[in-house]
Amino acid sequence: MPNMDAKGLLVFLVIGLVAGFLASLVVGGGGLVYYLIIGVVGAFVGGILLGALNVKISTGNPIVNQIITSAIGAIVVVILARLIA
Predict the structure, then answer these.
(1) 19 exposure class (CB count in 10 Å sphere: 0-12, 13-18, 19+)
(2) Domain count within the chain
(3) Residues 4-16: pLDDT tens digits?
(4) Would you say 45 and 77 are in contact if contact means Cβ atoms under 8 Å apart?
(5) Helix, strand, or coil here: 58?
(6) Is CB count within 10 Å lower at the N or C end of the chain?
(7) For range 62-76, the mean pLDDT
(8) Would you say 42 and 76 are in contact if contact means Cβ atoms under 8 Å apart?
């Protein structure tokens, strides 16, 4: 993660929160902490997964791109966790 100030960290956490919420709409689950954890983990997983598949999300807004990438990653994380458990 690059050098991050307080504003950057807050934006990252809000993106994670939104992505976790969106993922929960698809696969279920809930709670503020759950959304945050799943969204932040999903940001990393989504970035790696989409990068490996050479998929580019380009809506014209970098924050929306990151939310979509994070939500995809969060959905994958939740599905894999349920398959393992």
Answers:
(1) buried
(2) 1
(3) 688 888 888 899 9
(4) yes
(5) coil
(6) C
(7) 93
(8) yes
